[in-house]
């Protein structure tokens, strides 16, 4: 009997002017972010909040933590940090947490004390699709202040030349609300149907579908939403399972 190799599944072909990518669970391992990056931020939160009290973004983040956690206006920094630690424990994607973490990480990247992580299948495909004329953008809960150095300090060098636009929950709104995807389509100046979103999160899938985007769900073994219910959109396990085509 002759041995036949297993057939390679046909790649999913997606035609779009822009591909917008989620990071954690899609381009990059949650374990790396919740491990290396969170470990870097955790012991630095208190000093950062106190040392940057005059920064309007940090002052606003502190106010939001007090409000969201029902803390009194004169709560100590230690009390604020306790809330942030608890959110980090549960990977709560709270905007004030992301603002503070993002500034800490930006400094860590600039000092070469941390670098980013991408699954092996991601960077070659981003490079290829960029060369082929597909616009590339990011929509992540991680703040833009951390997204840019995340791409600048990749294991494969500076990738910022590939990415034209970065969106976070301050700029665009919640990743689980349709309005955020409408806002991104407006900012990019294209119709929703010309946009593709890659994400691992079923709530984000639903919001982007509602906004009329093309959505590909990522179900990667070992990631938090592996084999989740993605509600009928195409599901893949790797960037190698997809071919992006510019219209
Ligand atoms: C830019 S690196 C840090 C990313 C981060 O903090 C995060 O929460 C990513 O979540 P998402 O799944 O929205 O990319
Ligand atoms: Mg994600």
From TrEMBL:
<comment type="subunit">
    <text>Monomer.</text>
</comment>
<comment type="pathway">
    <text>Amino-acid biosynthesis; L-methionine biosynthesis via salvage pathway; L-methionine from S-methyl-5-thio-alpha-D-ribose 1-phosphate: step 4/6.</text>
</comment>
<keyword id="KW-0028">Amino-acid biosynthesis</keyword>
<dbReference type="InterPro" id="IPR023214">
    <property type="entry name" value="HAD_sf"/>
</dbReference>
<protein>
    <recommendedName>
        <fullName>Enolase-phosphatase E1</fullName>
        <ecNumber>3.1.3.77</ecNumber>
    </recommendedName>
</protein>
<dbReference type="InterPro" id="IPR036412">
    <property type="entry name" value="HAD-like_sf"/>
</dbReference>
<comment type="similarity">
    <text>Belongs to the HAD-like hydrolase superfamily. MasA/MtnC family.</text>
</comment>
<comment type="function">
    <text>Bifunctional enzyme that catalyzes the enolization of 2,3-diketo-5-methylthiopentyl-1-phosphate (DK-MTP-1-P) into the intermediate 2-hydroxy-3-keto-5-methylthiopentenyl-1-phosphate (HK-MTPenyl-1-P), which is then dephosphorylated to form the acireductone 1,2-dihydroxy-3-keto-5-methylthiopentene (DHK-MTPene).</text>
</comment>
<dbReference type="InterPro" id="IPR023943">
    <property type="entry name" value="Enolase-ppase_E1"/>
</dbReference>
<dbReference type="Pfam" id="PF00702">
    <property type="entry name" value="Hydrolase"/>
</dbReference>
<keyword id="KW-0486">Methionine biosynthesis</keyword>
<comment type="pathway">
    <text>Amino-acid biosynthesis; L-methionine biosynthesis via salvage pathway; L-methionine from S-methyl-5-thio-alpha-D-ribose 1-phosphate: step 3/6.</text>
</comment>
<keyword id="KW-0479">Metal-binding</keyword>
<keyword id="KW-0378">Hydrolase</keyword>
<keyword id="KW-0460">Magnesium</keyword>
